[in-house]
Amino acid sequence: MKFPAFSYRAPSTIDDALRELSAGSDAKLLAGGQSLLPLLALRLAQPSVLVDLGNVADLSHVSNGSGRVTIGAGTTLAAIEDSSLVAESLPLLARAVRHIAHRPIRNRATVGGSLAHADPAAELPAVALALDATMTVRGVDGERRVPAAEFFAGPFVTALRETDILTGIEFPVASGSWAFLEVARRPGDYALAMVAVGLQREGDTCTGARVVVQAVGSKPVRAAGAEKALTGAHVDHAAARAAADALADEIQPVADIHGSSDYRRRVAATLVRRAVLQAAGEGGSND
Amino acid sequence: MTDVAAELLEIELTVNGQRYRRSVEARISLADFLRDELQLTGTKLGCEHGVCGACTIIVDGASARSCLMLAVQANGKDLRTVEGLTSGPELSPLQEAFRRNHSLQCGFCTAGFLMSATALLADNPTPTDDEIREALSANLCRCTGYETIVAAVAETARAANPAT
Q1: What is the DSSP letter of B70?
Q2: ipTM of predicted complex
């Protein structure tokens, strides 16, 4: 369980980090290391070079302005958990981050690292998709902005090239009411199924719905059928059930040692039903 | 590979109030550095991939898995390990509470639990039982069934803050 040998670089600027990434082959970025170092320990990854971003200034910040919250990629999950700005403006993110691993891990893990790692059962990719986040990416050819809907390509695969660095994530300030639910065997484990539901309402009628499902496939997805079942509907138990049924029809969950496809389908559908009721403020955890 | 393995990096860090300067290979984990280089073997290796919490220490005031840090990442940082909980032969109040409550059997997880609990109580001196369980869920124990560990932490918090 010891790490394999590698060359270590600790640049102090993003430009230097980009140079290091482009210099040789097989270089990996090290941020919090809470996903990368376990891979090295298990010898699932053996990069020749680790480029540590720990000395790069200005990667860790949470700020807002013009209806957007910007979070530096180097911001730890603990800092997000403790941020009153995030609690106020992005309640879905504040709620979801508490489900990630445990506090000692969150003290080191970074939001950029988690998004770039793109584990198909991770919370932050689901939240990024649910909240229409935009990723700021620096490459050798300059800076570009990638919407969450285009960022996650598959399990552990994103729009980042080998020589790119994710530097920040921008969220529009969320309106509407949100719920986040996941099922894991123990709190902190990777999820067996996960949902994020957002509802815009006028009175009791839903004028817009966002339903994101994670941990049942290769990346977070919007459940269009569930969203359609909710939009224009009076948000009640029947609507929640309709959304759950639509979701059960539209997902093709993976089967693995942690659960069958059918199990994941049932759990995801139940979570959607409960999340809709929770977002609507009616509770819904009793069935 | 020999070129890579020979690359030594200078680090300076503080552990339990004492400054150290050493040369280390990049690949050495902070846990192995503390144990092998500094002879601070209180910190234990369990799973060595971040799940069990036996390696938990405090880095710049926050709990962290020392098996998921490189020694070089600790450069310039202020660390506390289980050896730093007391300065002499007597037990700290938290350790006394563990002893009184039978919060350990084989003792292998104990250093990690003590550091998780220390970090919790520094952040939140009057935790509810739920908050204690939430914080300590970061650590695994195979012997005790956890109840006596939770009781010891709760007792320590109450003794330090009698008004609650």
Answers
A1: B
A2: 0.96
